[in-house]
Design goal:
Blueprint: E1 2-8, E2 18-21, E3 34-38, E4 44-45, E5 47-52, E6 61-65, E7 69-70, E8 75-81, E9 89-93, E10 96-101, E11 115-118, E12 120-121, E13 124-128, E14 131-138, H1 145-155
Antiparallel strand pairs: 1-8, 1-14, 2-3, 2-11, 3-5, 4-7, 5-6, 8-9, 9-10, 12-13
């Protein structure tokens, strides 16, 4: 699971939130990539959680997206991936599950040769967040809906949510 608490000023930057892949290379096959990816450079956009769910040397990309988010607001966005097809892959906004799909691969793989970028897209150095990240958490396991909600409740008052 990946959890980010963030706010952008006036506009999202496409692709610029967090991810792990080969630095400056857009190669899903050899990087076991995952991304939290705003989908437009605009005041309002959705965020997609992408995972290459196959092992190094092959790819099968799964993706789940939020609804529209607006610049100027604080958000908790969490992407979870479980190799248990019933639990699947989910994306949450402010403690609420927004989307869930079944999975079928090996999950989010941490490749020691990959680069973790927080506040940007590891594939492109020009994609950087125009805002603030207050918290970033990377979990070894898929958080449950209850755990995501607990994390939200524990921090929400800091952001007047």
């Amino acid at each position: 699971s990946v959890e980010v608490w963030f706010r952008v000023g006036t506009s999202f930057s496409q692709g610029a939130l967090a991810g792990q892949s080969t630095l400056n290379v857009d190669d899903w096959t050899y990087s076991n990539m995952w991304l939290l990816h705003p989908n437009a450079t605009a005041a309002n956009t959705s965020i997609t959680f992408y995972v290459n769910e196959n092992p190094w040397g092959s790819f099968s990309i799964r993706a789940v997206s939020t609804g529209t988010l607006s610049a100027g607001n604080w958000y908790q966005v969490v992407g979870t991936y479980s190799i248990n097809g019933a639990t699947g892959m989910s994306i949450y906004v402010n403690g609420q599950q927004i989307n869930n799909i079944p999975t079928g691969g090996s999950g989010m793989t941490s490749n020691v040769n990959n680069t973790l970028v927080i506040g940007g897209d590891p594939r492109y150095s020009f994609r950087r967040l125009t805002g603030t990240i207050s918290t970033f958490n990377y979990y070894e396991n898929a958080l449950t809906p209850t755990q995501v909600a607990q994390n939200f409740e524990a921090r929400r008052t800091r952001y007047n949510l």
